[in-house]
Amino acid sequence: MTKRIVREFDPISNTTQVVYRELDDGGLAEKLNDIMNRNILNWASIVIVIACLVVMVTKLRASVRFRSSAGANHSAETHTGTSDVHLNYAQAISSEQDREKQTSESETSGQTSKTKTFKGKKLPSSEKEKQGMISSKEAQVVRAVVLVAAVFVTCQTPLMAYTLARRFESQFDNKEEEDGKFMKWSKYVFLFGLITNIASFFTLLNASVNILIHYNFNSRYRETIKTLWKCHSLM
User: Is residue 201 very low, low, confident or very high in pLDDT (cuts 50, 70, 90)?
Assistant: First the structure.
């Protein structure tokens, strides 16, 4: 059945009215809806989501490896430069001690302890901490996208399954046309109604769970929701 809104002349009121009509098209519109809108487009969306997810994870891993190698090279260069500075500083102290032989023993020991303290000083680990924070943030993004994709695929599966089954089993429907004159209940009408309600539930669940996922993983989204909630509470 094709459902349309058409204009018809009403002889009783002598006016043209907009009415709702169901036109018999032999089930063509229903077949196109099941095959195109509820299966082909959904399968294409799932393939695109999974492909984009794989590309994103691959690129993030490559980015993390690149930054890790760059950070390691930078740390090695910094350590080499610091060692040279320490060596030059120690040589300068040694030369100064040779020139100043008349210096008291206490001043010499104090200068030596100062040199050891400078040598034993550790380099700051801000670069490693920064790299760790970046990696953690990227891992959080990956987890959020994986959850959204998994919820989407899971919630769309019942809808695609029952519409595809209806194309292979003509009795799997809520009604069946006979001789073009009247409608009767199909053989699997109750099972069809149950599966339809389950598919509708998962469709609504998909939209509801996405809000919770973004609220948990996206700090900007979370702050926006809190701000809107505060504004709503003040009204």
Answer: very high
